[in-house]
Amino acid sequence: MTALEVACRNSDLPLTVQRRVILQALVGREDHPTADQILRQVRKRLPEVSRTTVYRVLDTLVELGLAVKICSPGKGARFDPRTDRHHHLVCVQCEKVMDFEAPRLNLLPLPDTRTRAFDILDYSIHFRGLCAGCKGRRVRVREKRVRRLPAKTTKRKAG
Q1: What confidence tens digit (pLDDT) does each residue in 55-94 have?
Q2: Which domain holds residue 108?
Q3: Do 143 and 105 share a structural domain?
Q4: Hey, which of 54, 88, 116, 123 would disulfide with 39, CB 3.0 to 4.6 Å?
Q5: What is the pLDDT of residues 131-142, one digit of tens each?
Q6: What is the per-residue DSSP string for 101-136?
Q7: Alpha helices, DSSP H only, in the chain?
Q8: 26 with 76, same domain?
Q9: Is 130:138 a contact under the CB 8 Å cutoff?
Q10: Last-in-domain residue among 30, 52, 81
Q11: What's the CA dihedral at 72, 78, 79, 80 to 10 degrees?
């Protein structure tokens, strides 16, 4: 029995074709896709599936503990099939999200916030920076700019 079958049975949810196909589409990816990216992939197998269905199923998978929703302020939600504690590298240029293993970060103690009406259940850390591709593009653009700059000339005053 698959994890989806167990989770659906334990939650009294029907095991639908849409749930199976959407979970398969998510599990097969490492790029932390958006719901729209999953929708495009799922439509190859289920052309009639709606955007609403994909969004709803992804939210259900998160509720069932089979996926994690990754949210960044000002950015769209992404989905991760890895539910174990791990961290992410986020490119500020292309918005690529990559898993980042840092066992020492997993040992950070959770602060006690119960007195502030907020219970922390888990955490993951997002490091923001430039991926190798964007970093390389920046270096190449900078090099092109330097090559295009006119050579400095000095003007002599007459007289």
Answers
A1: 999 999 999 999 999 987 677 899 999 999 899 999 999 9
A2: 84-149
A3: yes
A4: 54
A5: 999 988 876 666
A6: --TTGGGPPPP--GGGT--------EEEE--HHHHH
A7: 3-10, 17-27, 35-42, 51-63, 132-148
A8: yes
A9: yes
A10: 81
A11: -60
Tell me the CATH number at 67: 1.10.10.10
Cβ neighbors of 29 (< 8 A, separation 6 or more) are 41, 81
Dihedral sign computed on CA atoms, order 109, 112, 116, 117: positive
Q: Are 66 and 101 in the same domain?
A: no
User: What is d(CA 125, CA 72) in angstroms, rounded to the nearest whole number?
Assistant: 11
Query: Which residue, 81, 96, 127, sits at the end of a domain?
Result: 81
pTM > 0.90: yes or no? no
- 90's tokens: 């986020």
CA distances, 40 to each of 17, 26, 46 (Å): 16, 12, 10
Residues 57 and 81 sit within 8 Å (Cβ to Cβ): no
DSSP conformation class of 94 = T
